[in-house]
Amino acid sequence: MPLVVKPHNPWRVRIFIVLGATIIIMAGWILYEYGRFTSGFDNIEAYRERSELLDTQKQLEDRVEELREQKAVLERASQIKKEAYAELDINLKILQAELLELKGELAFYRGIVSPSNASAGLRLQRFKVESTGQPRSYRSKVVLTQVLKNQRLARGYVRLSMEGLLNGQLMTLSLKDLTEKQIKEIKYRFKYFQNLEQDLILPEGFKPLRAMIQVIPTSGRSQKAIEKTIELAKLGE
After folding, report:
1. Tens of pLDDT along 134-186?
2. Fewer CB within 10 A of the end CB, N or C, for the chain?
3. Cβ within 8 Å of residue 137, ≥6 positions away
4. pLDDT, tens digit, for every residue of 77-107?
């Protein structure tokens, strides 16, 4: 069999392959654009709409950020307003308490200067027993007055006692039993009024029920002793 020799040129084959692939790609792209054109797709219009949507998105994002800043400002303003109202409420309560205290003092001095009974003489203006905040520790407060026009000194002494339960039994403790220095009585000496305070120590386990006071004058034959009892049911709770 005779041997046939054919010329071989690999570059020409590669060029044909590249040209063929390019023609196929271009044909595909042309068909794609033709399809979009026949279906009514406008590339320029789509680009314009996309630009408008991007602008709208940017405006909305800016608006959201602005609203967030406004929200933060309003929340801070609301917080400041609440703090101001709370401080105002505290100041108002303090002023109301001071006003009540001033009214009490005014009534007290009015009772001295212009009493309802000018011939009443010696009077027990105030008597109360309060806790000091320490266990079993209390303080008695006694205010004695007499008519302002009375120029004589009022003299005498005050006896305090407390009735309550100790180990389930009713008993009465004198001032001597309620004070560390075992004071028997509190002396008074004044012309217009006098404030007497005395610290009291209750025995362990003693539950006070009531406190009694006796104001016994030693000056003036017409002066009579004053006695008063106040309930202390909640004092030892």
Report:
1. 988 999 999 998 876 666 888 999 999 999 999 889 999 999 999 988 899 99
2. N
3. 131, 199, 200, 201, 202
4. 888 888 888 888 898 889 888 888 888 777 7
Degrees, nearest 5: CA angle 220-224-225? 120
Please give the Cα distance from 206 to 169 (Å, whole number): 10
161-197 burial code (b ≥16 CB/10 A, e <16): bbebeeeeeeeebbbebbbeeeeeebebeeebbbebe
Kindly report whether the global pTM for this prediction surpasses the value 0.70: no
- 130 and 215 share a domain? yes
Domain boundary among 114, 133, 167: 114
Rounded to whole angstroms, how far apart are CA atoms 12 and 47? 42
Structural domain including 92 reads 47-114
Domain stop point among 114, 149, 171: 114
Residue 192 lies in a domain: yes
* 86 & 167 share domain: no
In whole angstroms, give the CA distance from residue 141 to residue 119.
25
CATH of residue 138's domain is 2.60.40
Checking if the pLDDT of 196 tops 90, the result is yes
